[in-house]
Amino acid sequence: MDQQDLLLAHMEDLSKKAAKTGCAASRFLTPAQAIFVEQRFRKYSNLTFDGGMDNAEYTRAIFTNPDWGTYTRDELFAALRFSYRPQDKLTHRDILGALMALGIKRDTLGDIHCGEASATLVCLPELCGYIAESLTKAGRAGISVSVIELEELGERQENLTIKTYNVASLRLDAVLCAAFNLSRAKASALITANRVNVNHQPCLQPSKELAEGDLLSVRGMGRTKLLEVGGTSKKGRIFVQIGLYT
Asked: Which of 128, 153, 178 is the last residue of a domain?
């Protein structure tokens, strides 16, 4: 069985378990996995996706039996805050690397958000104590860890550098050229080499028309979002606002 077949089989098992016990949840899914599961399980009205905070990127697939009630976030999620010196400027990669160095698997961790002197993490409740006791450094930077309430996480914030461009069209290759400062040929080559995702799904069509809110990711280069489509110039070029994830 390939990975997708295994994932679907696991979801079937969770659905059956929920029918008997009231609730069953997966580990954290990537956005692409969540989309795949949602598409295959649309017939299940008792399936929800939750990441422990509003607009979470990494979520758990949660099956419930309405006759047994529902779930609370505190049962399925825990939250931690990592504090460090502002001058250490830790990134998402630094925090994730430190966690995985403890032997923790990525699918037990939800969203990680880094600020100027602190970061927050959503994780499985059973990992909360281990991380709080074991994580003392990320790279060379010292870290202090505290358990926080889920309500303290607030809503997921996106760290974007926003710029305005004018593009020939809303084709995928044209927008990539602007966002990543590429030639049209280079952008097309990346797309046809299956290195570009649109809204977490692979896209092999340079001519695909984009719309406001579309999320683009290029393997090895980063992610960007088409935030706004404006008017056109006298030469017919389209003004767009693009946010590059930092």
From this structure: 153
Pairing of strands 78-83, 144-148: antiparallel
β-partners of residue 191 are: none
What's the whole-model pTM score?
Answer: 0.81
Assign residue 211 the CATH number of its domain: 3.10.290.10
Assess contact for 209 and 216: CB atoms under 8 A: no
Query: Positive or negative, the Cα torsion across 43, 47, 50, 55?
Result: positive
Name the domain count of the chain: 3
Statement to judge: residues 193 and 212 lie in one domain: yes
Using CA atoms, how far apart are residues 140 and 137, in angstroms rounded to an integer? 6
DSSP secondary structure code for residue 30 in this structure: P
Pairing of strands 137-138, 109-114: unpaired
Q: What are the pLDDT digits (tens) for 105-154? A: 999 999 999 888 999 999 999 999 999 999 999 988 999 999 999 999 87
Distances (CA, A) of 65 to 40, 45, 61, 107: 19, 10, 14, 24
Instruction: Give the residue from 153, 171, 192 where a domain finishes.
Output: 153
Domain that holds residue 89: 77-153
